[in-house]
Amino acid sequence: EMTDGAKIEVYLDDQKAATGRIDKRQGAGTPTSYTLTLTFRGLAAALVDSSADHPSGQENKKSPGDVAKKLMEGYEPKLIDKSGESRAAPRFVLREGESIERAIRTATREYGLVAFENEDGDVVLDKRDGDEGKGPRLFLGDSFTEFNVSRDIAPRFSKIKAKGSAIASDKRYGKDAEELASTAIDEYVKYKR
Fold it and tell me: Is residue 183 within 8 Å of residue 160, measured between CB atoms?
């Protein structure tokens, strides 16, 4: 079913190119033809859209792969750790409101690691220049006739938490000011973002 939020797999010349979720479906037709345009993002887009919901806000004595795995809990993509990095960081602290994708990048950067989304929609953690590419070459016009790629990392949220602030005074200091917060949920989004 090709509806907003549906999971899709894209193949080019019998080679899987991407796995994602449809953001928008647009069709146009004439008596002799029909054009369907699907706009989609990879499964790891949820990690760009979401902030980490971590009870303590930090991970202690864990490897970059372990930190990434913990941050990705509850999300659709899996972590494939090809880095072989086992050194543990003494402490990794999450920044308030930071996206999961950015936190993973921060946790892995000092070890010379990169995180990227593969064609299955999973997150691969690898050393820089560790993946040289695999599979046959694809040729425009031979393997496929039209292909357009744009990198969209604009966040889209299903759950938004708004926090208020207050000027410190006798009545608005500490706990009272911290309680000025609320969460709104977009029921239209069918999968976790």
Answer: yes
